[in-house]
Amino acid sequence: MKLRNIWLFVLIVAVAACGGAADEPVADTAAPEPVADAPMDDAAALDEMTEYFVTHYNMGHADMVAELYAEDAVFLAADGAVHDGRPAILASLETAMASSPTLSLDVADRVIIGDDAVSHGVWGMEMTPEGAPGPLALDGHFMTVSRKENGEWKTAAVITNYHAVPPEGTPVGEAPAEAPPELTDSALSELADYYETHFSMGHGDMVASRFAEDAMAAFANQPALTGRAAIAESMNARIEEAGGPQLTIHEVAAMDLGDGWVFGGGWYEMAAAAGDSSGSYLMLCRAGADGNMEIHWAVSNGQPASQ
Asked: How far apart are CA 85 and CA 61, in angstroms?
């Protein structure tokens, strides 16, 4: 099966500066603080950064957009491509802008902890790739990790996905073939093991129990979901549709952001009767009242293994 996402080795460098299922909803599990509760100067700076990104992206100013990224940033694109470092991101921007895309970004929520920030939201794009019969309209979810460098916010890592299987003619990116080093013992290892085990056993409800009551999950090629109940329903449907899927999670990054928050990521392989696939994931987690880590936000992307 094709291995993806050497990017997470880069992610560890880029952001380094920076038990069982719960049977009942955890009443006092804290959700990410809204932007209004964060320092207004940081929140305002991040909002301005997003506006600047969209404005200059749509004007075709690839170099100006690229300057918003840290030198060692990584962009994990919905099409499966991995762009490591600002020069690679700049090259990808220049290629994308050749199709005269129109981009929109809507930040749904953000948590700011010291010099780190994690955001998620929805992106939309209209573009006409070379060789395509006509314009394509695409949309999906994103999660962004930002860090403050010398008093200035920079994007350290971004993952994007699609909200549905992309239409024919959508470009497919080239993913690295080598696997990055994996973690064997981290704050998120038990959660990853639990998820992998019970998903592969067909226990969708048990997997969903490790999401916070008001969690957001944007799985590859599906609309974003809000709330544990919706995630459980989707999880069970996906398992049934896939036909006995066997999931392998490769944990690569787990970083303590402070105040109980842990940001992590990795890559996965899934073997299933309906077809094999692999992709990346990022998630923002925090321990619940029982001490077990819960997923508050999760975004994954994926492509058929044959690609």
From this structure: 18
